Amino acid sequence: MMISMEKLARPLVPLFDLKLEPGDIEAVTDTLRSGWLTMGPRTAAFEQAFAEHLGARHAIAVSSGTAALHLACLAAGVGPGDEVIVPSFTFVATANAVLYCGGQPVFADIAGVENPTLDPVDVERKVTPRTRAVIVVHFGGYPAAVDALAELCRERGIALLEDAAHAPSAQLRGRKLGTYGLAGAFSFFSNKVLSVGEGGLLATDDDDVARRIRQLRSHAMTSMTWDRHLGHADSYDVVDIGFNYRLDEPRAALALSRLARLESEILRRRELTLRYRELLADVPELVVPFTADGVSCSSCYVMPLMLRSAERRDQLRHELREAHGVQTSILYPAVHEFSAYRARFPDVSLPRTERAARSEVTIPLYPHMTAAQQDRVVRGIEQAVRD
Ligand SMILES: *Cc1c(COP(=O)(O)O)cnc(C)c1O
Question: Is the Cβ atom of 165 under 6 angstroms away from ligand 1?
């Protein structure tokens, strides 16, 4: 039986909305007609285009951002006994990737609600002789203190990894995020800035890391089906314990098609973000993280707000949903406060992360959002915070 999506209750202003163009759909149907469905010419073309776009030597497409983070940790040599410093104000996958390798995530605090990204001072405090890597997250697509962290890591011989899941095409001083460390992980999950459903990518300038990642992505086989199809090889060896972290061709085709619009969609996200900042500047109950200047560096993945009175958050979200049809979310609950993490790391205390995790409300943002929709969100917030 078919379920009509139209009949499911939908908010008037959703948190995120995806709009594909006819060219995107054609790119996918062409791929389906081609009869070659995984790891072929479209994946190679997307990797090349993304590497050029970033200014990175290598871009390796994988099945998810989580897979990219896992491979990044392996490339940095993370294994049992190693510590990796991570934020807790992030999606759980950032820390999970460390645990997949048998390493220990060590949580560092954020700078504060105005800038909810890793505090380099707290990172430095948490470095021990066992620290193997630092994973920095560019929350919302805004550059974290990645230059300071890169220097700290260089001085101490620690690998810097970037979780750039929010931040394709974002930059700091002209250098794209995801190219500051040993490797940068991107996500193309449904609600991300460059979404294809499920997908990810690892960028690196290091030839050895790239070779290792390409192998581990596909069972550490010494040749791929496509090479054999082209007659470049007719057998293979398995040289490590790898994974099936491949991206398939329809999604690579969709990613390549959408990549052409990435910059213009981000420009639109920036305009909307600046307009939100102006409209919300005089609401004393709110802190709007980051700065208007920071918007020009950011991919503006989401629009985060911090409530000065965290205890009013549930009511605000409820009223926005019920009275105004506005969908909101929380990015993020603190990772160290999830049950699975509390059980393993009972003593972690991160006051600034905990405050942000209790105060944060993410409001709708997507490139084709209209001014009328945005006004509806802002009016709803103004009414709700004053009730
Ligand atoms: C989405 C996300 C991931 C995981 O990406 P998937 O493609 O969903 O596996 C990792 N880190 C952050 C910060 C994310 O937002």
Answer: yes
